[in-house]
User: What shape does this take?
Amino acid sequence: MISTDNQAAVAPAGSEDSKFARWIVVAVLCALLLAACILGYLGWTSTDTKVPEAGFVALVLGVVFSLVIGAGLMALVFYSSRKGYDEPVVLIPEPVSDPEDERDAQR
Assistant: This one.
């Protein structure tokens, strides 16, 4: 079978190389998550600065506001998709009128 989409170098989905590559990707992503958690913990505990209650309230309000905006925008995306607003525009041609018909309509 001849491939026309330039994916001849990619191993088939059931091969051992493909499974190994997936495990490598999962391992790298887990390592990045672990590194981010460690850096976050070190950054959080590296100072002895106290955050006032107003700071925590602002943090919670910011997170809640961001979640509400994100959920609202996603709801709009799904709504517009279901109602057909995302469909491509269809150009409807105007009917060609006969000049003699226009003369008759004017009389």
The mean pLDDT is 84. The longest helix spans residues 53-83.
